[in-house]
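Students often ask what a 'structure token' actually looks like in practice. Rather than answer in the abstract, let us consider Cytochrome P450, a protein of 421 residues. Its sequence is given first.
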Amino acid sequence: MPVVEVFLPSTYETAVPYELFARLREESPVCWIPEPAIGPWREGPGFWAVFGHADVKQVLRDPATFSSHLGATQIRDPDTPADLAFVQVQMLNMDPPDHSRLRRIVAAAFTPRAVRALERTIAERAAALFAAGECDFVEVAADLPVWTLAHVMGVPAQDKRLLYDWASRVIGYQDADYAGLSTADVESLTPAGRLAVAARPELRPGTNPRSKAALSDMFAYAHALAETPVDGESVMSVMRKGGLTEAEFENMFFLFAVAGNETLRNGIPGGLLTLLSHPAELARLRADPSLLDSSIEEMLRFWPPVMHFRRTATRDRTLGGQDIRAGDKVVVYHASANRDPAVFPDPDRFDVARSPNDHVSFGFGPHFCLGAHLARAQFRSVIRELLAWDVELAGPPRRLTSNFQNGLKHLPVRLSRRAGP
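Now compare that with the structural description of the same chain:
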């Protein structure tokens, strides 16, 4: 299989190419990947792909050499200098010390103590998701991260489906089923929600979904929400008081609405499918619920919701035997690093008791996922509840067409309450 397959979204329609990753880790752990035009999206200059665990960590821990800011963190370059300048004020696309300043402003909402205060509510919400019969588990699982984010962000319940639609459009833009998704019931939205729907732009094919123009409806909503009085303080109101500029506020809203949503919407169904594909390990977990936490870490390793992130070299550097030049794109593959046999014995085996488990599904270094505690709490609540149900596939799963998100579009399952242990 040619190395260009690493880049093509169509490669991931059937499975993550772990066999190709394994070969490249062995033969060319840092490898040049071409970036051809795909449909309406123009050709790019290509990039260095990093496959080994140690090299991935090296890149992620060294923002002075491998910058999140210079070219942002997606493989695809922003369409215009103005688009690049706009996304560079997003926390995800910053380097220290600017990144550190924004992270401090919102960190209080995601401490273990803050998450513990939410855990009972999250668990109750997770338990209410399930009912006997057939369902699409992707849709069922999507409710919890959307509800949790709406709660944290101060988004009214009537508007939470907007978060689902925005995440679908941004993350799933390579998939025709997701790129134009609009599922919110306009009549049930708040005035701010209806304002957002009215502000939704009509874009030409190939427009970058992360550009300010493509997200004008989201940003119209963010500003309207910030001006709406609420009881208590939401994360968004804390951010406004923290001295964020308008562009920083808009990008932070984007980061919460999309990054904190889509990862769990993909990760939790992926975790369930992994369990169903390994019935002996599911039985082992049922027999010993104390393995819940380690099983979740193994699900995250085995099915990382995000497959890669990009950096840009700030200076010439040798990595993995390759001479990288200043300005080159450098893309770290979490999905490959999580199967590196130098770190994970028998890496293709799913083991609910695996320990230690040094996966990089939440990243590493300065950009380690700020919401990791909250993500784990939601994952734990759903999987704990699922152990009380017999679950079987009711149809074939369908994967998301994306070279970025390791996602499922559909996971038909049949649920019945377990009669005993």
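One point worth highlighting: The radius of gyration is 21 Å. Ask yourself how you might have guessed this from the sequence alone, and why that guess would often be unreliable.
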